[in-house]
Amino acid sequence: MNLSHLPEVRICFVGESFVNGTGDPECLGWTGRVCVNANKKGYDITYYNLGVRRETSTELKNRWLREVSYRLPKEYAGRVVFCFGANDTTIEDGKIRVEVTKSITNIRQILSEAKQLYPVLMVSTAPCGDKEQNKRIANLSQEFALVCQELNIPYLDVFSKLINSTIWLEEAKNNDGAHPRTAGYIEFAQIVENWDEWLNWFPLT
Fold first, then answer.
1. Which of 29, 47, 98, 161 would staple 35 via disulfide (CB 3.0–4.6 Å)?
2. What is the 3-state secondary structure (H, E, C) of 107-151?
3. What is the arrangement of strands in the sheet containing 155-156, beginning at the earlier edge strand?
4. Are 159 and 166 in contact (CB under 8 A)?
5. How far apart are the first and last CA of the chain?
6. Rounded distance, CA 78 to CA 89, Å?
7. What is the chain's alpha carbon radius of gyration, rounded to the nearest angstrom?
């Protein structure tokens, strides 16, 4: 394998606590792990974790462009991965934090703008330890998939895989009720790394 031609890549991961890797004692989460393995393939990765705990899509909409454009100057190969939505579905003070219709409006605005500027991938949010919230997350993930299809942006549904993962659900339940530990994030990273769209970003040759 000739590594001399593999490019320098600057990549921003934008989202909430699952992007941040909350709960992982190794402080890598899934985003750190996929970048470690891209580095092992020979890519020169500059990795920016822009995960903010408890953030909703409304808050993300208001910050992502400023933060991403500052880190991805035009002279470099900049790429963006979005992963958000779980916090939209949280119930606070008796009501959902962000209504589904507003979440859909937010993701459409975020991704429509992002795709004009960068190569973009969208990864669904993951399950938490609450069954009722997971029903809302599942519904929102399906709605997000439709928006990505409409905008021709690759979308990876990790929710439907992790909702059947004993490791992910047990770690989340036994940790803080929402976030897994190391093994759960390893599973998440493996799902991403086996995704054709991610492999197209970081081919072996």
1. 47
2. HHHHHHHHCCCCCEEEECCCCCCCHHHHHHHHHHHHHHHHHHHHH
3. 44-51, 8-15, 77-83, 120-123, 155-156
4. no
5. 6
6. 30
7. 16
Rounded to whole angstroms, how far apart are CA atoms 70 and 57? 20
**Mean pLDDT confidence for 104-119:** 98
Which H helix or E strand runs over 15? strand 8-15
What residues have CB less than 8 Å from 151, skipping those under 6 apart?
108, 111, 112, 115
Q: From its phi and psi, is residue 62 left (phi > 0), alpha (psi between -120 and 50) or beta?
A: alpha
pLDDT, tens digit, 9 for 90 and up, residues 1-29 = 444 456 789 999 999 999 999 999 999 99
Question: Of all residues in the chain, what percent carry a pLDDT higher than 90?
Answer: 91
Spatial distance between the Cα atoms of 90 and 102, rounded to a whole number of angstroms: 14
Query: Quick one: which of 65, 153, 80 has its CA closest to 113?
Result: 65
Average pLDDT over residues 77-89: 97
Give the DSSP letter of residue 71: H
Residues in the chain: 205
Classify residue 54 by its DSSP letter. T
DSSP 88: G
Look at the alpha carbons of 63, 66, 67, 68 in this order and tell me if their dihedral is positive or negative.
Answer: positive
Give the tokens for residue 128: 């938490």
201/130 Cα distance (integer angstroms): 34
